[in-house]
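agent> Task received from the user: take the single chain below, predict its 3D structure, and emit structure tokens. No templates, no multimer pairing.
agent> Plan: (1) validate residues, (2) run structure prediction, (3) serialize to tokens, (4) report one or two observations.
agent> Step 1 OK, no nonstandard residues flagged.
tool_call: predict_structure(input=
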Amino acid sequence: MGLLKRLIFWSGFTAGAYKAYQSFPGLVQKGLLTAGESDRGRSVLRALPSAHKTAQRYIAGSTLPEAIAIAKEINARKKAVSLAYLADSQYGLNSVPNRNKIGEMIAQSAAENLNADITITPTTLGIRHNTKLAWQNLKLLLDKTEAGVTLWLDAEDHSTTTDMLALYQTAREQGYDNVGVTIQGALYRSWGDINKLAERGDMKVRLTLGMLNEPSEHGFPQIADGRDNLVRIALFAMQQNGVRPCLVSHDDDVIQAVMDGLRTHGLDKNAAEFVIPYGVRPDLQSHLVVEGYAVRVYLPWGNAWEGYLTQRLAAEPSEAILLLGNF
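)
tool_result: status=success, residues=327
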């Protein structure tokens, strides 16, 4: 973090700072993401008033009622939501507290008749410790979910991808059609993964760039290459029979490429869904709605916000620069 901080200070908190960020995206992203993954980094963020203030832009409160209230406001603006509980990693093998929180979220979303789906990270289900436990947790949550509501398995780093895909496949084989899986453009393996899913003819996919902090043997080191791969995967997915891909992006070029693809293949605007994180580019969200595209807002909530905040900062250079100036 010392080197990262100096990099920001040297650039002078002006246009030069943004240019420095663009020149060293890997360094900045890795520094931020490492901070979010470490106990020390999370403690520093939690003690920093400016971090709390910044987090409020991207996180729908620390409690479920706060998140539900914001979800209602978003629905009123003709946008769906994807509720996500920011689970506390301290539970480790004991995933029951996190599972129960997610169960409450599913039940309350249904009770309020929200236009919402649910996003779950595999780690929350205990996948890093016991894949059988993860399946048991997922099955319990799928059984609680009403018809028409999708539970999305969210992308993490490359180390959970194989187990996540296996978890998804197990659920589909067990007859659960309300589960979806996330594929990352940043990973080399993703082109092969999406083709394998297509070969099985049973594909419900959410597509995202992912964070470019993977080891070079697993992921694209350049952001542009990851974006190109994401677009390639999205265009492939939309051509598969019965597949309605969900694209997580607020990148103009990526979104335009997908819109062009829909037109080229004679598909309806509703044949894909654009997912944009809460607090990110509300102008773009509104524009897509006005143009007739399906928009969903990724809406995280909970007390364990530090890791998610660093992800957002890694994707939002101006916010990172301002926040780091307070260290």
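agent> Step 4: summary for the user.
Strands lie at 80-85, 116-120, 151-153, 179-184, 205-208, 246-248, 273-277, 294-301.
agent> Done.
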